[in-house]
Task: inverse folding
């Protein structure tokens, strides 16, 4: 309890699993559970603990004890996250080649035809409409490609409002298929210092999580607001099935998943969200009521100074 939880006395067994109590006092044959342990540097890490009773000879006597195998889930999550980004990068490159190239050719040909169309005519209006749809498709592809970029060691100026709108554009087919109305409530722009790919991963995971929580349709809202003290609040709310009270403490654990639409998940989305937010010294919290949806609130640091935006 001192090394792994930083406590001065044994952890209360009624509040969290205790291998000594469960195995030696209650007679269980084995135990596996997820927990948060304190590392050597004082940092908290998600772990999986597998424990079993053991009998050892000590000074001619048999002493009963407990052996524990502790697996670092945060490290496993980072590896899975990198694998996921690699898969997305491969997909993005394929999409760029198969879609962007012909779309660029179509756009160039359409531009040449527009020059021969009279201003204000119906054919010119239709050409403008087609050009707009082509650009929308290319923006979706660009969003997917930017999502696959690894985080730089140096932060940059990132417009959260643009990231939010591009995220909804990226999942528009999923929203339409599920019958979900989505909107961004935010100022015209709000720039912070962050990693662009981290912000895209953060919002995409929260949005995808909300989509899975609304198999019968509903409303998805992304609210972004800056405050006088320089902090920024991002709220992703849905009107889905909600989260059971007993599960609220577990939703950010790696490999924990309980999708309501019947699809299979890796259980990494919300864990990655917390990792991204904590890396920025921010906070992420969830509030939910069964049958009424969930509300994820993110508190981030100060907006970027306009003078350093390039």
Result:
């Amino acid at each position: 309890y001192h090394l792994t939880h930083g406590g001065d006395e044994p952890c209360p067994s009624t509040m969290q699993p205790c291998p000594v109590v469960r195995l030696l006092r209650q007679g269980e044959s084995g135990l596996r559970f997820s927990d948060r342990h304190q590392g050597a540097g004082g940092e908290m890490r998600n772990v999986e603990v597998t424990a079993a009773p053991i009998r050892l000879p000590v000074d001619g006597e048999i002493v009963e004890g407990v052996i524990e195998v502790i697996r670092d889930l945060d490290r496993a999550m980072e590896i899975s996250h990198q694998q996921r980004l690699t898969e997305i990068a491969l997909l993005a490159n394929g999409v760029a080649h198969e879609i962007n190239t012909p779309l660029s050719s179509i756009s160039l040909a359409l531009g040449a035809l527009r020059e021969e169309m009279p201003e204000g005519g119906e054919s010119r209006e239709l050409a403008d409409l087609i050009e707009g749809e082509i650009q929308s498709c290319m923006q979706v592809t660009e969003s997917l490609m930017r999502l696959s970029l690894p985080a730089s060691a140096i932060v940059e100026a990132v417009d959260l409002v643009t990231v939010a709108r591009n995220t909804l554009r990226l999942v528009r087919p999923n929203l339409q298929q599920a019958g979900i109305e989505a909107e961004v409530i935010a100022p015209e722009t709000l720039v912070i210092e962050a990693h662009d790919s981290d912000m895209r991963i953060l919002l995409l995971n929260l949005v995808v999580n909300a989509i899975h929580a609304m198999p019968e349709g509903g409303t998805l809202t992304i609210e972004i607001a800056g405050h006088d003290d320089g902090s920024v609040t991002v709220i992703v709310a849905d009107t889905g099935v909600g989260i059971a009270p007993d599960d609220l403490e577990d939703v950010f654990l790696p490999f924990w998943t309980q999708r309501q639409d019947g699809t299979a998940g890796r259980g990494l989305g919300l864990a990655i969200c917390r990792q991204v937010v904590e890396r920025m010294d921010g906070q992420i919290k969830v509030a939910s009521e069964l049958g009424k949806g969930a509300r994820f609130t993110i508190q981030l640091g100060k907006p970027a100074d306009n003078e350093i935006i390039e």
In short: Strands lie at 31-38, 44-58, 61-72, 156-159, 180-185, 191-194, 218-226, 232-238, 283-289, 293-300.
